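Service request form, structural biology core

Requester: graduate student, group of Dr. S.
Request type: structure prediction, single chain
Budget code: on file
Notes: please return the result as structure tokens.

Sequence provided:
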Amino acid sequence: MVTRRKGQRTYTSTANTNKNFKMFKQEIEIYFKATETNKKDSDVQVACLLNLMGHDGLKLYNTIKKVGEESVGTILKSLEEYCIPKTNETIEHFNFFNKKQHDGEQFDVCYTDLKKLIKGCNFGEAENKILRTQIVLGIFDKETQTRLLRNDVALNKVVSYCQSVERAESNRRMLITGHESDKTVHEVVNKYRTKEQNQNKSWKKDESNQNQYNSSQTNQLNYRQMSKKRNSFNNMINCNRCGSNHVYKNCPAYGKCCKNCNGYHNFAKVCKKKKQYDNKYEMKKAQEIKIENREEHDTFTVESVHKLWSIKNEWCKTFEINGKKINFKLDSGAEINTLSEEDCNYLGIQ
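Core staff response, request fulfilled:
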């Protein structure tokens, strides 16, 4: 009993009848050999073939069958004559000789297409030589073509050489791609490290600038304070209206009445008008003297607050820096020691 195995191809009528029939014929031959059907009687083989042909194939067989005894070989030959039209060798030659390897096309793909095309050319025993020639003429890589033209080699050596060149080129590209990938990774890492280093440098620079700014602000403040004191000391005058030293336009006698001349804006002790003594008013004068002395004593006490002569009584020590002497104030209660910009320039300190 003949059974159609699962997935067994049956003959179907399609647009590509030529290709479909060739595949069907090849599978029938394989199946008959695998199941040893080819060892059975001829009528059994024919029945098995008709069964495997399917509905479309059986209809075609009934149309083209010939009178007389038939075998598997005659049935397949009749189907082949019907399905495969006669070929035009000129067109087949044209298609074969115009087949060349395209850019990016693998050599094995091109070689397979050439072998298919040459089957319809009927070159006979010269088929391998013509196929070799077409491979050399149609190879895309010109360096490979030049190499093949140096010696007249056989088809199998030409095919082997072309395959080895293609594999070598593929390996070379793989190595280049690998190096580029490693290079890309290193570039990313180096870029990240550079960015991180730049950020650290930027932070350190900002911190340094901030410290320099704070130090500059502190120096400027100290300089202004010292300059203010120095200017205040330099602006001290020996006043001829009160008889003491004070800052310009800060006279304690301003608006006061002189007990000697009854004038304003001066004290009696420095009054330029000659004192007039009157015995009649001796007691009054004595009282005025007491008041004047008390006023001057009070004024002297007030003036002592404004005097800056205490600077000369400060504890100081002279040191030598960079070959230049400078006077330092000794202050045990100070938390920080500063130098003015003027002193730094004098000492040559940047």
